[in-house]
Write a structure and sequence with these properties.
It contains eight helices and twelve strands. The protein has 253 residues and is an alpha/beta fold. The chain folds into two domains: 10-148, Rossmann fold; 156-251, Winged helix-like DNA-binding domain superfamily/Winged helix DNA-binding domain (Arc Repressor Mutant, subunit A, Orthogonal Bundle), CATH 1.10.10. A five-stranded parallel β-sheet has the order 2-1-3-4-5, with helices on both faces. Strands 6-7-8-9 form a four-stranded antiparallel β-sheet, with no helix packed on it.
């Protein structure tokens, strides 16, 4: 059973995380996946992160964690090592194989791991030993997100024989200029900023067109098709603009 460290504020966890004494709202796009089988702790962690502006999805077992992660990778994962189904160690390894850049912060009891080196060998980016304070966990998650956030490609970006200058809005492939519409260029930039991450059609509609209720998600599909035709060596068998069936797309550089 998870307990708060004795020197932390009891009233802040699990009841009222908003009383932590500081508040740094997270970007609305940052989503935390909480993998914890104790329902009370799960609810407490959800309140803790939501109070700081994060979107939170909570699951209770290893199998569901892997499936949820594969469907749409979050910004970070808070993972309890002791889980039903797939053990936490195996979940950690599986998530890292799928998306190595997503940080994983492990919740561990003193008996779970002997030292930090062993835990990092499992693929975790950091760990917090139980019992812990909410302040410490928040600080560790924020630090992991800062370390792993990809810089916005504001200047130049390349993959294969494609070279992009985001400042000048120019795309060159095999030494020849490629004409992109404004929306195609905006979609290309957003996908490059989120390389290796599964992006849903709804998210693309919201981020590229600016609102949720665009007439049809076919709009996204048509723009992806255009980018494939203009930038892929074999548009029928795309390497970079990949379809994730039932979810959306993923850009792989």
């Amino acid at each position: 059973m998870l307990r708060v460290a004795e020197n932390s504020q009891p009233s802040s966890f699990p009841g009222t995380p908003q009383k932590l004494g500081y508040r740094s709202m997270a970007p609305s796009t940052d989503k935390i996946l909480v993998v914890e089988d104790d329902r009370a702790v799960q609810r407490a962690l959800k309140r803790l992160f939501e109070a700081e502006g994060y979107s939170v999805q909570a699951v209770s077992d290893g199998n569901t964690a892997v499936e949820t992660f594969r469907a749409a990778a979050p910004s970070a994962v808070v993972l309890d090592l002791r889980l039903p189904g797939i053990p936490g160690r195996e979940v950690c390894n599986e998530l890292k194989k799928h998306s190595p850049s997503v940080p994983i912060i492990v919740l561990s009891a003193a008996s779970d791991v002997s030292d930090k080196v062993l835990l990092l060998e499992l693929g975790a980016d950091d760990y917090v030993t139980k019992p812990f304070s909410p302040r410490e966990l928040l600080a560790r998650v924020r630090a992991a997100l800062r370390r792993t956030t990809r810089p916005t490609p504001t200047q130049k970006f390349s993959f294969d024989d494609v070279h992009i200058d985001f400042t000048k809005m120019e795309v060159v492939r095999e030494g020849k200029s490629v004409a992109l519409t404004a929306q195609e260029f905006k979609m290309l930039k957003f996908m490059a900023q989120n390389a290796e991450r599964v992006i849903t059609r709804d998210e693309l509609l919201n981020e590229v067109w600016g609102y949720h209720n665009y007439p049809s998600t076919r709009t996204v599909d048509n723009h992806i098709l255009k980018l494939r035709q203009k930038l892929e060596k074999d548009p029928a068998n795309p390497v970079h603009f990949r379809t994730v069936h039932g979810v959306g797309y993923k850009f792989v550089s």
